[in-house]
Amino acid sequence: MTKRLWDKGNALDTEVHRFTVGLDHVFDQRLAVFDAVASAAHARMLNRIGVLESKECSSLLSELQKIAEESRAGEFSISPDLEDCHTAIEMRLTETLGEAGKKIHTGRSRNDQVLVALRLFLREELLGHLELLEDLVSVLTEKAKQELVTPLPGYTHMQRAMPTTAATQILSYAEWSQALVHDGLSLLHSLNWNPLGVGSGFGVPLELDRDYTSKLLSFEQTQPNPIFVQSTRGREELKFLNWLTDISSLIEKSALDLLLFSTQEFGFVSIPVEFTTGSSIMPQKRNPDVLELLRAQASRVRAMRDELQGILAKLPSSYHRDLQYAKEPLFRCTDEVRRAVTIFTAVFPKLSFNRERALEMFEGELFATDEAFRLVALGEPFRDAYLHAAEKLKNGEIPVAELTEAFLAREKVRCEKELLELELRRTSIAKVIAGVRDAHASVCRDIFKEP
Ligand code: ARG
After folding, report:
1. What is the pTM for the complete model shown?
2. Residue 85 CA: which ligand 1 atom is closest?
3. Are residues 166 and 76 part of one domain?
C-alpha cells in the first residue's frame, strides 16, 4: 500500500481503510481538476507572501496544469490507497517536484481544499445548467409562437373550466424555465465566496493573503469565519440540489400534462413515432416512455436531495467524515437533471398540437364564464350575469362561435405581449451569465500561467 501523507508509521486496518475510502477516489476524479485550479491559486498566494520561491511556484503551476488537463480528459486516476484527489495531487507534486511539492500544503487542510474544489465544481455545473435552461426557454418560446391561436381547454380539478390556448400552456413552461434561470443566477452569486485559507476549520497560524486567492479564483468575497466556512460544506450543495429539484418539478409537471393530453381520450397532443416505444404483445401500441421516465426522474432527484439533507442533519459544527458522502447525491443529481433537461428540450419542439380535436371541446360549458363577462359588459351586475349565464348554458344559448373568436383574438394579443417581455428579460440576463461564464473559463485556463 502506498504511504498516505498523514501516515506516521501506525498500521491501519485494511478493511477499515477500504471502508473509509469507499468510492471517494472514484468520485474525486471529477473534483481533481478543480483541486488543481485551487492549488494553483494557493501556490501563487504562497509565492506572494514569501513561502514559495518564484521558481518553485512556476514548477508547481506547470505540473498542476498537466494534472488539470489529465483530469478533464478522464485520465487522472486516484489509487484507493491515497484516499482522495487532494492526497493524490500532493503526492504527484512531491514525487515530480520534490521540495516545492512538499511546500504546497502550507496553510491549508484537506477540509478547506475539498470545500474550494466543490465550490468551483458547483460554479461550473450551475453555468452548464443555466445554458441548458436558456436553450429550453428559446425552444419553448419558438413553439409558443407557432401555436398562438391553437385552442386548448383549461381544466381545474381535472374538470373543464375555461378556454385557453396551447401557446399559453407552453409559455407557462417557458416562464418557469426563465424563473429558474433567475434563481440559478442568484444561487451562483450566493455560493461564489471563497472558503480556502481556513485550514481544518479554525484558521492557520500564518498570515495568508486570502483576498488575493479569492481574486485569482474570481470569487466575489472571502468567507471570513472559519467555523462557518465548515458549516457551508453541504449547505451550498443542498441549495444547488433544491434548485435542481425545482427544475425537475417543471419537467415532471410538463410531462404529466403531455401524458394526459396525448391519451386517445384527450388527444390534444401527438408525440412523433420516433419518440415512442412499442409493446412486445400489443401490436397497436406506441408508448410515451420518454415522458414517463422524465416524470419518474423528478422523484429520483427529490430522493437524492433528501439523502443529502439527511447526511447533513444533526452534525455539530466543524468537519466530520460523514460529509464525504455528500458528494455522491450531488454528482448523481446534477447528471440526472442534465440528461432530463437535454431530452426534454429535444422532444418538445417535435410535439404536435391537434387544433381540431381541441376545438371539439370548445362547447357552451367551457364558455359559461366568458358569457357571464359578456353580459357584464352589456351592463348586468356580475352576480346576476353569473346566474343568467348558467341559465343560458342550460338552454343551450351560449354563443360559442362568437365567444371562441373573441377569446382566440384576445389571447393571441396577450401571448404576444408575454413573448415580448420574456425576450427582454432573456437578453438582459444572458449578458450577466455570459460575464460569469467568461470569468470562470479564464480562471480555469489562466490560473496556471506565469504570474
Ligand atoms: N475526502 C474527504 C472528504 O470528502 C476530504 C477531507 C478529508 N479530511 C479529513 N480530515 N479526513 O470529506
Report:
1. 0.95
2. 1
3. no
